[in-house]
Amino acid sequence: MLELYQFEHSAFCLKVRLFLQAKNLQYKVVEITPGIGQINVFKLSGQRQVPVLKDGETIVSDSSEIIQYIETITNEPELLPKKPHEAAMAHLIEDWADTTLAKAARLELIKAAAIDPSLRKALLPNDLPNSFKGLIDNLPCEFMNGLTEVLNQGQSTALLNSLEKLSNSVSSQPWLVGDSLSIADIAVAAQLSLLRFPFSSGESLFGKGCLGFADNPRLDPLFTWRDQLEKKLIETDPAIL
Ligand SMILES: N[C@@H](CCC(=O)N[C@@H](CS)C(=O)NCC(=O)O)C(=O)O
């Protein structure tokens, strides 16, 4: 049985889950508590980040490496395009989503959580005691602000600009590369979870997100596309939780 070591709200972990769901593979989720739980991740994989996939004796870390590994288990359906042009486009979009989009979306979410205590609380791991959650809830915003690396306006505008183009693209045709689902769609959809939370983030977070993104009508087609993609895959999710 495949085991996925993950954080509940990590976009890179969602990327691997969506890929496993699209491949219709059974897997077990092992929830890791950020910080303390990463000691076990380190013992298992020699590094501290999630996602990590365990397949018997084989341990793979890094979402892109995991995806390459899963592809060796089954290449059905084809999510890593084979035609050279499509393969290049899918690779470049995945790389953009994992780097530029991931970083900008993470910083936007930190900014949003700094000004919204309820978002901060909802993002905490489920297994934290309620008393501790209450403490976080009451931390003054200035304290959170002091901890954050803030996106400047130019970076927010650049992110919005790229997302509007993607929003227009999915309005006219559903797949970012070729004429079927690929890793490009999955990688982008996963990182969008930080800007507006999907169904899989749970009731307390679904639909919430970063001001200027989650509530931006120009991005609505993009988040609706993401929600439909996730819903389609979740309906057939073979995960054993
Ligand atoms: N390049 C990695 C990035 C993974 C990553 O950033 N993981 C974050 C969670 S989203 C993490 O484990 N952070 C904890 C840490 O860095 O200690 C991938 O694609 O899997």
From TrEMBL:
Pfam families found in the cross-reference section: GST_C_2, GST_N_3
InterPro entries per UniProt: Glutathione-S-Trfase_C_sf (IPR036282), Glutathione_S-Trfase (IPR040079), Glutathione_S-Trfase_N (IPR004045), Thioredoxin-like_sf (IPR036249)
Domain annotation GST N-terminal: ranges: 1-78
Domain of life, per lineage: Bacteria
Any single GO BP term: L-phenylalanine catabolic process
MF-aspect GO terms: glutathione transferase activity; maleylacetoacetate isomerase activity
CDD domains reported for this sequence: GST_C_family, GST_N_family
Name of the molecule in the record: Glutathione S-transferase zeta class
Origin species: Prochlorococcus marinus (strain SARG / CCMP1375 / SS120)
